[in-house]
């Protein structure tokens, strides 16, 4: 016997303020992209993922630990703005899987790092893979911002 269970899905609230912020992201004039993109809690407390992927036709959220798809994000704007439920009740490590011109590519969402990196200052050297993070008097030299796994 097959039983189908329906879950209540949280959808992004699309009011005037939300639309104004999406317009600012698309125009490149948003004054706080980290406060709008990436993982955000909605009014119901559910985690939503917002991303701007202008070349993507489809975007999925992948749990980094299990390598499983937790959600497919609906495209809310033809310019490539995607947003929707993350498929997890709490923040988690994820990456985005984008379909572009028939190719599937996994990308890190830099906006998921905001809570971790908000109090650090970045200084990058001539080599793209070496950066220095500074907070108070502490300095950390970083070879790669994202693990290659």
Biggest sheet, spatial arrangement of strands: 1-2-6-5
Number of strands: 11
The CATH topology of the largest domain turns out to be: Immunoglobulin-like
Mean pLDDT: 78
Strand content: 35-45%
CATH domain class of the largest domain:
Mainly Beta
Q: What is the total domain count?
A: 2
Q: Give the end-to-end Cα distance, rounded to a whole number of Å.
A: 40 Å
Structure description:
There is one protein chain. With 149 residues, this protein is mostly beta strands. The chain has two domains: 16-109, Sandwich (Immunoglobulin-like); 119-149, no CATH class. It has helices at residues 16-27, 114-117; strands spanning 38-41, 47-52, 58-63, 69-73, 75-77, 81-85, 94-100, 103-107, 121-124, 131-135, 138-142. The strands form three sheets. The protein has a four-stranded antiparallel β-sheet, covered by helices on one side. The chain has a four-stranded antiparallel β-sheet with strand order 4-3-7-8, with no helix packed on it. β9 and β10 form a beta hairpin. The longest helix is centred in the first third of the chain and has 12 residues, at 16-27.
